[in-house]
Automatic annotation (TrEMBL):
This is Citrate synthase. The active site is at H280, D337. Keywords: Acyltransferase, Transferase, Tricarboxylic acid cycle. Belongs to the citrate synthase family. It comes from Saccharopolyspora montiporae.
Length: 402
């Protein structure tokens, strides 16, 4: 075949594609999306099956290593993660440096970036064992970092991980537990969190994953690349949307729950007014993850005994949008984030923390893509071109003559 990219660069031609709407940056075996049909598969397995039958550790293994693990492989992987949940004691001091009201996302990305200073024995992207070690360290330590970011924000003492617990249970305990009190696993909470992590675990070349691949393409280490991905996820058009949805629903409630007026404001394109949690670059149909979450939201909110008036607003908003020409013509459907905020809120997480939960779920996908990229023989440093639209050549004027 002809290498079109090479041919075009030799002839000086470039394609202008803002937002990479039509540009594939790589080949990938990890995740398949059919946006028109609303299909999502990890390594060939439909998301609905994984959501119903698997768990987050197993899905992480599947994404990173390409196959479902045998029992033995699963046990060894889970055990290895268990052994790495502790943070270096000096890293704990790090959290004291942030203001109490710091947003947990930059705390998370800073701490992950700092991991490369504490774990210098796992930075070489071309040493298989070091890559395994940084993979396991990240999977094990990100929940601990996230829980500490939460504890710091509410002024409570940090809890060391309890390695008799599974990853999700441990995270839940470190977040909501207290040192002197026994922790009781709430199976409804931890099962729902596990499911949400599975649903967020990968989504091919989204903004944060592309960022991880781009940073990694310079052969930067895994911690540095994931830290960059966390910062990309922070934006309200990406992972930050789950917090923004809740803020939107609360705004509507404060205005007496008037969904119609809000939708009119969206349609009039008032600056800064969007239907958050709606629309997607790839899905032009119902996001299959949103369909699973909508079912779960009802179940979880019911079981947690939370009678949240925001759920009613969300349901009315969805119904209104799905029957309105503006949204129908533009193929705008609820995405994964439309209902997650309500579940996280019912679980007791503050709004600011929602995007951190997204990061915990997306981590195995980021790692899988970083590894796939580095193993790709066709790999090149990411370096897009541009179409220059500035001044033609002009002469420098001394400061007194300008
Ligand atoms: N509310 C109102 N109008 C919208 C919305 C929305 N949520 N999303 C898209 N539109 C409109 C646009 O204004 C545009 O209209 P126009 O053709 O009249 O100009 C049209 O639909 C196409 O939208 P684009 O912005 O071109 O679509 P794009 O693929 O660039 O953006 C995105 C996708 C960023 C997700 C967008 O739909 C959006 O901003 N949604 C709200 C934020 C959100 O929920 N993000 C989470 C995404 S999922 C995730 O990261 C997990």
């Amino acid at each position: 075949g002809v290498d079109l990219g090479k041919l075009m660069s030799q002839t000086g031609l470039v394609t202008l594609d803002p937002g990479f709407v039509n540009t594939a940056a790589c080949e990938s075996d990890i995740t398949y999306i059919d946006g028109d049909a609303g299909i999502l598969r990890y390594r060939g397995y439909p998301i609905e099956e994984l959501a119903g039958k698997s768990n987050f550790i197993e899905v992480s293994y599947l994404l990173i290593y390409g196959e479902l693990p045998s029992q033995q492989q699963y046990d060894a992987f889970a055990e290895r993660i268990r052994k790495h949940t502790l943070l270096h004691e000096d890293l704990k001091q790090f959290f004291d440096g942030f203001p109490r009201d710091a947003h947990p996302m930059p705390v998370l990305s800073s701490a992950v970036s700092a991991l490369s200073t504490f774990y210098q024995d796992s930075l070489n992207p071309f040493d298989k064992e070091q890559v395994e070690l940084s993979t396991v360290r990240l999977l094990a330590k990100l929940p601990t970092i996230a829980a500490y970011a939460y504890k710091k924000s509410v002024g409570q003492p940090f809890l060391y991980p309890d390695n008799s617990l599974g990853l999700v249970e441990n995270f839940h305990r470190m977040t909501f537990g207290f040192p002197a009190e026994p922790y009781e696993v709430d199976p409804v909470m931890t099962k729902a969190l596990d499911l949400l992590f599975i649903l967020h675990a990968d989504h091919e070349q989204n903004c944060s994953t592309s960022t991880v691949r781009m940073v990694g393409s310079s052969e930067a280490n895994l911690f540095a690349s994931i830290s960059a991905g966390i910062n990309a996820l922070f934006g309200p058009l990406h992972g930050g949307a789950n917090s923004a949805v809740l803020e939107m629903l609360e705004g509507i409630r404060a205005n007496g729950g008037d969904v119609d007026t809000f939708v009119e404001r969206v349609k009039n394109k008032e600056p800064g007014v969007k239907l958050m949690g709606f629309g997607h670059r790839v899905y032009k149909n119902y996001d299959p993850r949103a369909a699973i979450i909508k079912k779960t939201a009802d179940e979880v909110l019911g079981k947690l005994g939370a009678n949240d008036p925001l759920l009613d607003i969300a349901l009315r908003l969805e119904e209104k949008a799905l029957s309105d020409d503006y949204f129908v013509e533009r193929k705008l459907y609820p995405n994964v984030d439309f209902y997650t905020g309500l579940i996280y809120k019912a679980m007791g997480f503050p709004t600011k923390f929602f995007t951190v939960l997204f990061a915990l779920g997306r981590l195995p996908g980021w790692i899988a893509h970083w590894r796939e990229m580095l193993e790709d023989p066709a790999r090149k440093i990411s370096r897009p071109r541009q179409v220059y639209t500035g001044y033609p050549e002009r002469s420098y004027l001394e400061i007194g003559k300008r």
